[in-house]
Amino acid sequence: MQNILLQDLYLFIHFHSSRMHVRPLRHLRHFHGPFCSSWTRFRPFFTLPTISTTSSIYPYRNKPHFHAKSPKNRRGISTDIICHLRDVGVTIPGGKTLFDNLGMNFIRGAKIGILGSNGSGKSTLLKIIAGVRSDFDGDRWIKDETRVGYLPQEPVLDPSKTVYENIMDGLTQCQSLMSDFDRISAEMGEPDADFDRLLEEQGELQERIDQLGCWELSHEIDRAMQALRVPPKESSVVTLSGGERRRVALCRLLLEKPDILLLDEPTNHLDATSVAWLEAYLMNYKGTVIAVTHDRYFLDNVVGWILELDRGKTFAYEGNYSKWLEQKQNRLNTQQKSDIVRSKQIAKELEWTRAHQGNKKGNKARTRKLESMDATRQSRITEGQIVIPSGPRLGTKVIRVCNVSKRIPENNRILFEKVNFEVSPNSIVGIVGGNGTGKSTLLKVIAGIEEPDEGFVELGKTVSLGVVSQTRDELHSRKTVYETISQDNDIVELEGGERMHARAYIAAFNLRGPMQERYVATLSGGERNRVHLAQMLLGGHNVILLDEPTNDLDMETLRSLETALAETFEGVALVISHDRYFLDRICTHIIAFEDGKVRFFDGNYSEYERSRSSKKK
Questions:
Q1: Same domain for 411 and 520
Q2: pTM for the predicted model, two decimal places
Q3: Ramachandran region of residue 592, left (φ > 0), alpha (ψ -120 to 50) or beta?
Q4: Does 514 fall in a domain?
Q5: Which of 128, 299, 468, 484 is 20 to 30 A from 82, comparing alpha carbons?
């Protein structure tokens, strides 16, 4: 090659690559001297390939539906397709068919959200794609050399390793590539080195290292751990809570950067700041993302397709969640009268979404007189929607928190101190903040489960307090759904002397028909949460404390719960939630744990965020 020696090229590469792990071959064009005039002759060798990021998903019923312009391989499958399901069917114990003859193609770079009621097969579908479930009919095909990563609802970590070691377990490919790169660099220093072979190997390695972003791996690990609020690196995973374990597993999976990223409820146990970071990360993710989630702002910001599982059938919609609402409403309008209730719920949410597009003004309706409450409540009972039985009528004094402080006994760390606020009648208060800041502890102090270290909590004389925790410890696995909720009472007493059958009350939580005779032990996470909610809300309380009530809920139950809290419940609710959409729809006030302080804000979540942003400016 004219004007350049291979030894000169090696010296340049070796100087820029040893230990620093910069991108040596990318910087060749900046090398001064005889090499510059020969760059155009090297350029074809060093040019990186272009990766297709076509965002498409093509579901079908009875036969494959391929893109007409996509090239096909010998099997007749589009080369842009990286995952292919054909005639997939799943039947669970008891004879229920989740889906039958399901088929779809997933295209490289697509961002897909999966919706459906609890028990419809969303998590099962992810497991089939991930290859961790084999007891199904039909075929699953994954393109050669395609890496699939899967975040289950209950991820498995190595208990013998620390947080950092578990994260590094997912980065073995990067570690191997960097080790090979260092080995080749060392071999180039040998007198009898085969430079042609070594340069070719190093070029191939660099392509892969660039694609996976391995050059700055250490910094990327630190950024991801900080953004997701992962516990300290040296922590043992044995001591972690369920939410902390999920954050470790999510961090590991994101850093692994698989070609297909399968996420089952990825925003659970993440605070709003972490969710915002995750959204930005996934929006720029080059691989295919398939997520099961109830977080509607997440679905609006990240996905380009919605795949709905509805009573054994699949429906694909192009667009985000807001677009899905419109298309779903159009489809329901053409169906039978049995879908009237669901259509009304979606129409109401669509109306709210359009009215609050952009500025997302808060829901102040609850602070006005509830003149039509009785009529609305009776309508919801008739239509089979969630009804929260109210307790005695509240007086003017509800909750007063005065100079309350709380520390962690083990290390004396201050969770919060000198907290003061007062909750008035007709309030729905959302509680937000980072993980581990003391939100659940504050609810326990208000409920009298834990004592404050300083200060006091005063409840009004008419307050009847109910608590819905996120542990679900109250559920008995050997009882049926009906036995668990009804407690052997066939009639549910509601406010104002109204009565309804326990089966109708339970059905309002989307636990209908044969579902009520299933044992709790056989239920999915979302189904267990619905049973827990129905059980705990039955007490007839006028003040309820809810700790992450939306986790694992399907959209239908979530919408019904929102409407019940915001429009028909006559009492007061304090709700811990990371679901921003949920908080925007129901809240009149926000209690925010921020920067070591607790702030009481008048307005919903989006209004609080705007206020917070304006103060930072």
A1: yes
A2: 0.70
A3: beta
A4: yes
A5: 299
Domain span at residue 126 reads 53-146+259-334
The predicted pLDDT at position 114 comes to 95
pLDDT score at 489: 84
CB atoms under 10 Å from CB of 137, counted, come to: 12
Report the DSSP beta bridge partners of residue 591.
Answer: 431, 600
Residue 349: CB atoms within 10 A of its CB come to: 22
For residue 533 the two structure tokens come to: 């909610």
Give yes or no: residues 135 and 269 share one domain: yes
CA 460 remoteness from chain centre: 37
CB 215 within 8 A of CB 22: yes
> Last residue of some domain: 299, 334, 369?
334
Token pair recorded at residue 39: 């760059």
Strand partners, 491: 501
Which pair of structure tokens corresponds to residue 107? 């295209």
Instruction: Specify whether 399 is located in the same domain as 489.
Output: yes
Q: Is 375 helix (H, G, I), strand (E, B) or coil?
A: helix
- Domain assignment present for 174: no
Length of the chain: 617
- Residue 393 in 3-state DSSP? coil
Q: Which of 307, 334, 361 is the endpoint of a domain?
A: 334
Contact 470, 548 (CB under 8 A): yes
Residue 317 CA to residue 320 CA, distance in Å, equals 8
Q: With beta carbons less than 8 A apart as the criterion, state whether 261 and 288 touch.
A: yes
Task: Examine the domain organization and report whether 432 and 540 are in the same domain.
Answer: yes
Give the model's pLDDT for residue 444. Answer: 94
DSSP-derived secondary structure letter, 258? -
Specify the residue for token string 């969770």. Answer: 415
Alpha carbon distance 102, 115 (integer Å): 15
CATH of the domain at 94: 3.40.50.300
Looking at the structure, do residues 421 and 279 belong to the same domain, yes or no? no
How many of the other CB atoms lie within 10 Å of CB of 415? 20
Report phi then psi at 596, rounded to 5.
80, 5
**Residue 302 shares a structural domain with residue 437:** no
Check whether residue 325 and residue 384 sit in a common domain: no
Predicted pLDDT of residue 509: 83
pLDDT at 425: 92
Dig out the tokens for 374 from the structure.
Answer: 């009785």
Interatomic CA distance for residues 191 and 200, integer angstroms: 18
Question: Which residue numbers in the chain have pLDDT < 50?
Answer: 1-71, 74-78, 361, 367-375, 377-383
DSSP-assigned letters across all residues of 527-562: HHHHHHHHHHGGG--SEEEEESTTTT--HHHHHHHH
Where does 157-241 have alpha helices with state H?
Answer: 163-169, 172-187, 195-212, 217-227
What backbone torsions phi and psi does residue 153 show, to the nearest 5 degrees?
-65, -30
Q: Which residues of 237-264 are buried (b: 16+ CB within 10 A; e: fewer)?
A: beebeebbbbbbbbbbbbbbbbbbbbbb
Structure tokens at 417: 């101190």
For 87, counting Cβ atoms within 10 Å of its Cβ (0-12 exposed, 13-18 middle, 19+ buried), the class is middle
- Half-sphere exposure (CA, 13 Å, Cβ side) for 238? 4
Indicate if 514 and 609 belong to the same structural domain.
yes
* Contact between 290 and 261 (Cβ < 8 Å): yes
